[in-house]
Design brief:
Length: about 425
């Protein structure tokens, strides 16, 4: 049966409207990513003003790892006039990084001031009110080699004032003591020398709310530090530490009565033989801690041969952890399998399985096979590809196939990945 022209046109119109509603964008203009959309008509004059005020040999820079913009436009001092903050790099000078603030005046932009950055790399820029005066402060991270420093500036009336300057490994702007006022928590780690956490709050100058300076510095480094909810209505900090090139442990810190407290210490409970990033796995806004767990029946095998599960736990608000989710993450990061939470302690791996050859995931109480993963040569794949096997990925000269169905993952942290029924990595569909 043929569709008539009118029906085809309607279908095309629906498809077009759906793509428009989805917010798809095919053109990326760095200048259009300025923080204030209402200034889009002023882009040309702003760029002209920036370039005219920079040294001829200077180049605009953006924070490391920031794909957004090198131009920050806001009403910093809330006087009704927009300001633009940029940073630029000058070579062969004693000071390499400079910040510049311009102010919108009628139909143009006027340079208000230039200030020096203390480092060779611009690490981060945040515009937030951390002094409690309703105005936006400038929080900037700089680095010079392995050393990093955070500086807090306040801008008002055309003048810039430095409020706080401290070395850091990671800084977080939060409200750890939950008093409705922003605070800044700085983690500073130097291997074998210092490992401390300090929380500052502004009160006629930044004051130390509390500090933990007796943490153990004898590990390689922190590979992940994140702040946010660690339990219902409780803010905290989760620190993932690399013991060596492979193993790790996790520490959790909260603030109670303006005192920092370690609620989950980095000990045997959170030790793992593989680095796992703590994150919100189930999308409920609460950070989970990842642990490695051997499948049932594999406890006494050679650790190098065990196909470990990655299980995620929440802090229970007291002194323990409660289970949230479980995955199988391929050690070479080629695929991820998500399991139903109710399968915890039921799902296991057949002990005849061999990593990089064949894995069979079964329910221990019924023996039912949930999913199989196997590695095939091209010749082997040609023989089995029509018997229920699907392509999961490729590894050099091998095809990774699977058969079986799993429920689609709904974890918030995997929202930007293919996760159903199995997360495939590095293959084109």
């Amino acid at each position: 049966m043929k569709l008539n022209i009118r029906v085809l046109r309607r279908l095309a119109a629906v498809a077009l409207s759906m793509s428009l509603l989805s917010g798809c964008t095919f053109i990326s203009d760095p200048v259009s990513k300025m923080k204030s959309p209402e200034l889009s008509a002023d882009k040309a004059s702003l760029m002209m003003a920036i370039k005219s005020q920079m040294p001829a040999s200077a180049s605009l820079i953006r924070p490391a790892g920031d794909e957004d913009s090198s131009i920050f436009t806001e009403d910093l001092d809330k006087d009704g006039m927009m300001e633009t903050l940029v940073f630029y790099f000058t070579e062969n000078e004693s000071v390499l990084i400079h910040g510049m603030i311009l102010e919108k005046v009628e139909d143009g932009w006027v340079k208000k001031l230039v200030f020096d950055g203390d480092g060779t790399q611009l690490e981060s820029v945040d515009l937030k009110d951390v002094t409690g005066d309703g105005k936006l402060d400038i929080i900037t991270g700089y680095s010079r080699g392995d050393e990093k420093g955070v500086v807090v500036y306040s801008y008002s009336g055309g003048e810039l004032e430095e409020r706080l300057a401290q070395p850091y490994t990671k800084y977080m702007i939060d409200d750890l003591n939950e008093d409705g006022i922003s605070d800044i928590t700085i983690v500073y780690f130097k291997r074998n020398e210092v490992d401390k956490i300090t929380t500052y709050q502004f009160n006629d100058g930044f004051k130390v709310l509390d500090q933990l300076d007796n943490l153990d510095p004898y590990f390689n480094n922190y590979y992940n530090i994140v702040s946010g909810k660690v339990a219902e209505n409780k803010e905290g900090i989760v620190l993932d530490a690399a013991v060596d090139s492979r193993s790790a442990y996790t520490t959790m810190v909260v603030m109670e009565n303006n005192k920092l407290r370690v609620v989950i210490p980095g000990d045997a409970r959170t030790f793992k033989d593989r680095k796992i990033i703590s994150e919100d796995m189930d999308g409920d806004g609460i950070i989970e801690i990842g642990l490695l767990e051997p499948p049932k029946g594999w406890e006494y095998f050679d650790p190098e041969t065990i196909p470990y599960f990655t299980s995620y736990y929440k802090w229970d608000g007291k002194d323990g952890l409660t289970f949230t989710a479980q995955k199988y993450r391929d050690p070479a990061d080629r695929f991820v399998i998500d399991f139903l939470p109710e399968w915890h302690e039921r799902i296991t791996v057949d002990t005849k399985s061999v990593q990089d050859k064949s894995l069979k995931f079964i329910l221990s109480d019924t023996g039912e096979t949930v999913v199989e993963v196997s590695f095939f040569t091209q010749m082997e794949w040609d023989r089995v590809k029509n018997s229920g096997w699907k392509v999961l990925g490729r590894d050099m000269d091998k095809i990774i196939g699977y058969r079986g169905e799993l429920v689609q993952s709904t974890g918030g942290s995997d929202s930007d990945k293919i996760t159903a029924p199995i997360e495939r990595k590095g293959i084109d569909e």
